[in-house]
Structure formats: structure tokens, C-alpha cells
Write a structure and sequence with these properties.
3 copies of one chain form a homotrimer. In chain A, the strands form 2 sheets. In chain A, strands 1-8-3-5-6 form a 5-stranded antiparallel sheet, with helices on one face. The first copy, chain A, is built from 3 helices and 8 strands; from the N terminus they run E-E-H-E-E-H-H-E-E-E-E. Chain A is an alpha+beta fold and 137 residues long. Chains in contact: A-B, A-C, B-C. At the A-B interface, strand 3, helix 3 and strand 8 of A face strand 4, helix 2 and strand 5 of B.
Chain lengths: 137, 137, 137
């Protein structure tokens, strides 16, 4: 069981591919066969597995989320921290704050088209803490 | 690997913070570094990580879910068990029936604003079985 | 830590119950108490826990997803691979590409009404790779 925490500065709403950073933690762990759990310690950012080739996929996903979970909806009670705040909580719950990935032969066993992305849901950039736990042998 | 099953009586649709109960299981396990997996053995209740300070966040989330996943939608085929039943299944799939959390220094490594909540999606209270599995060393 | 990869040929959009296939892997592992992680190595198929008795539940879920995540929405930029492609990515992210289940007494500790389903989101059938990792003792 190997655990590492690191921090990523986001640059506002949107996704960034963190597959390589997580792969580095798996390498540090020395674990060959097992699982890698990734966890973001926040309620307005999330972790998704998404198609990694065409950035349009993430743009379309963002547009869909923006339509379904309206920023600044006047029906929100929780609105003091800005139009993006409550929407960011709902988006994070829908897209989830953790991911578990298999580790095979010392590497994340992602499919060819899968990337692991940190998704910032606030308008402005934030420092995000990510805990990675690798288990196996 | 430590496993414990416990039961919670819900009081109808809504959320309850179970972070402390899960923390107690982690303590019982004696595990210092690892993972804690929480699983609800039902298809009409779920587990979410949500902002733990302002209850309005959970009210807004509930309102959003109620708008997006309509109770008693006449298009549902599965309707014999009441207006909330099919909606509860969809809500549970969207918000998920399990959560995995890192354990660090013998405690759940939740962020400052993160709480783990059991989300009952049926109108009436139910007895819910929760399996907690803690792995690590 | 036991890991096995297998392949399932889907027959187009829809769900299939894979609980028994996953149970077989758990049996192969010989693990009595632990966790079973199931992962689909694709971005247009997912894994859900759903009510396993009445197939109408899955039909209603499918209808709900089809209404919420429109196929062929003209606002999608990512549209070259067909009307179902971008929708399949969003559906997979909402319903997630992995599931972790407790293992108790050598068996998946699913609730009475829970089944694990592979959800194909493309119109046509695909060969889907699934990695199952069982940990415990």
C-alpha cells in the first residue's frame, strides 16, 4: 500500500489530463499488479475518465453540463460564493471525486482512448489536493 | 482487510452525514494507511461526498435531482411501487451506491469541506445495509 | 491480489447482467473477504448497479438517458463517428466505467435486488474489454 498526495493548480473551469502524473505515482510505488485510487479532496472539482484524443469531447461535455446544471440558477439557496459555486457542487457529485484504475505490469491499465482528467468546476483556478493510493504487489 | 456491515434507518428522502460512523469502522480496523470502501446494498439509496457545512447545498442538490429525475413521470413503465420508485433507481445510479476514500494516519482523508452522506431516495424511511471494507496496513 | 481480463461482445445499446461472470472471477481468485473492482477499458460503455428483477427499470433508465443526453445534438462538435458517439461519451461519464463491490465469504456482497450490468451506449455491438481485480484474503 503506497500513498502520495500532490497538488495541482487549475486555471479555472475545465479539464486537464493527469494520467501521466498518476502513472508516475504508480511507478514510484513499485507495484506491478493492483489498483490505483485517485481522490480529490474538494467538493467543486472532480475526476473523470474521458476520451483522450479529441478535445472536442471535453468541450461538448462541458457544454452539456453547463446546460443541465445552470450556473446562477435563481432557485439555488446556496449562492453567496458566486454563480458557479452551487453548480460546481452538483457537477462534482455527478462526475465524482474519485476514480479507481487497475494497475497491470506496473502501469495504469487504461484503454487506448481513456485519459484521467481533473475537472475544475469553479470559474477561477484553485489549488487542488489529490491523494493517490496504490495497492497490490 | 477488515469488513463490517451495519444498518441505518433513514427517515425518508434526504441525506444524512455518516462520516463519523465510517470513521469509527476505520478506527476499529486499526489500519493506518489504506482505503475505505463503503457500499450500500440497495438500488434506491446512494452514497455521496458533499459539502458538509451549509445544509442548503444538499437542499439545492435535492431540488436539482427532483427537477431532472421526475417522480411519477407517466413515461415510466416501472411504476407499481409508487411515484418515487423509478426516480429513486435513476437517482441512485447517477449518484452511485459506493464510495472509496483514502485512509491516512488511521483516519478518513476527507477534505475539510467533504462529508460522506447516505442519500435515501424513497419517500419513506428504510432500513439500509452498508458494508464497509478497510484495506491497508 | 488477483487480476483477470475478459471480453464481452455487446449487441448494441443496452444493458447485460454480468454479475455471474464477475462472481466466477471472484471464485477463481479464491479470495474470501475483500473487494472486487471491475473496469471497462472504453469511453462509450459503462458499468452500473441496477435493480435486477424487473427489466422495465433498465428500459426506463435508457429512456431517461436518451432524453437527457440527446443523440445527434447539433450542438456537439464531436460528431464524425455518428449520432450516438458523443452521447455515448457523456452517458459513460455519468454512469461511470468502474464499480467496486465488497466480497464476503467468497462471494460478491450484492444486495438482493442489485445486479451488475455492462451498459453499451453505442448503437452497434462492440467487443468490450473488462479488467477485474480482486483483493483481500
Amino acid at each position: 500500500m503506497y500513498q502520495e498526495t500532490f497538488h495541482i493548480k487549475t486555471s479555472g473551469r475545465g479539464t486537464q489530463n493527469i494520467s501521466q502524473q498518476i502513472q508516475n505515482v504508480v511507478r514510484n510505488s513499485g507495484i506491478q499488479t493492483g489498483l490505483c485510487h485517485v481522490f480529490v479532496k474538494h467538493t467543486s472539482a472532480s475526476l473523470i475518465i474521458c476520451e483522450n484524443a479529441d478535445p472536442d469531447v471535453r468541450s461538448d461535455l462541458e457544454d452539456w453540463l453547463a446546460r443541465e446544471v445552470q450556473d446562477g440558477d435563481p432557485r439555488y439557496r446556496h449562492s453567496m460564493e458566486g454563480a458557479d459555486d452551487m453548480a460546481a457542487h452538483i457537477r462534482s457529485i455527478l462526475t465524482k471525486m474519485d476514480q479507481t484504475l487497475p494497475v497491470t505490469q506496473g502501469r495504469l491499465a487504461l484503454g487506448t482512448w481513456q485519459g484521467l482528467f481533473l475537472y475544475e468546476h469553479r470559474y477561477h483556478g484553485h489549488q487542488r489536493s489529490i491523494v493517490v493510493t496504490v495497492s497490490g504487489s
